[in-house]
Amino acid sequence: MHNFYDKYYKNRKIQQRVIENKNYTYRYVLKFINPFLKKKIVVLDIGCGVGTVDFYLARNSKLVTGVDYSYKAINIAKLNAEKLGISKNLKFYQRKFPEQKIQGKYDMVLCFEVLEHLKNDKFAVEKIKNLLSKNGIALFSVPSLNSPLYKLGLAKWHDERVGHQRRYTAEALAALVKTSGLKIIKVEKKESVLRDILFSFPLFSIVVRAANRFSIISDILTFFDNILSVFGEGQIILVVKRI
């Protein structure tokens, strides 16, 4: 499995700039993160990949720690942080979560597109609770069982390609989190069939890259994404608090 994720990141290149709020790939998750960002907070990003979100967070928080199972991803993240000149308040570690221990307590824990990759998601949520400081915030995102592509049987190839072991409903994700004693603050269903298609099939990667670079394209695609969401969501985002 370790080689599986190293292979996934093998073609990633050094990042040229820190993403902005209208970055098409991350605009939904940034929208949820931004209200909780403060200069004094300490953040943990589980499944950080090559660190794209963490470079953004480093500008708006005290310290950001990113962990990922892939050595390849972590090495790229470290190189990126140095190149962008923001490594001072960034740390990256290779860890197999939730089996390997992560040190410290955090004001915010991000777990975006991770739970669906893990054999024991309940154990992972419990570990995240223990990593949170009192009144700390955790944000989760997972792929939805209600995705139109999934219902049509067109998402199986993508799920296998990226290592998904399951999908969730909003109710199932909320129930999973509640078992750990975390308080749910917000649940939202995001992404329509449009984003599902663009991110599921490599053929459309050129469109995603263009939308990431030009905000007008990102705005147009997001406009249609919001309209098409009536047919079912592709992603569920959950915000919780340790009380």
Primary descriptors:
243 residues, alpha/beta, Rossmann fold, seven-stranded mixed β-sheet, 11 helices, 40% helix
Give an account of the 3D structure:
A seven-stranded mixed beta sheet has the order 3-2-1-4-5-7-6, with helices on both faces. The protein is an alpha/beta fold and 243 residues long. 39% of the residues are buried. The protein has one domain: Rossmann fold. Strand 2 (63-68), helix 4 and strand 3 (90-94) form a beta-alpha-beta unit. The chain is globular and about 45 Å long. It has helices at 2-8, 27-33, 52-58, 71-84, 121-131, 148-151, 156-162, 170-178, 193-200, 205-213, 215-228; strands at residues 42-46, 63-68, 90-94, 106-112, 132-143, 183-190, 235-241.
Shape: globular
- Report the CATH topology name: Rossmann fold
Give the percentage of residues in beta strands. 15-25%
Mean pLDDT, to the nearest integer, reads: 92
Sheet with the most strands? 7 strands, mixed
A few lines on this structure:
The chain is an alpha/beta fold. It is built from 11 helices and 7 strands.
Question: Which helices and strands appear, and what pairs or packs with what?
Answer:
Elements: H1 2-8, H2 27-33, E1 42-46, H3 52-58, E2 63-68, H4 71-84, E3 90-94, E4 106-112, H5 121-131, E5 132-143, H6 148-151, H7 156-162, H8 170-178, E6 183-190, H9 193-200, H10 205-213, H11 215-228, E7 235-241
Parallel strand pairs: 1-2, 1-4, 2-3, 4-5
Antiparallel strand pairs: 5-7, 6-7
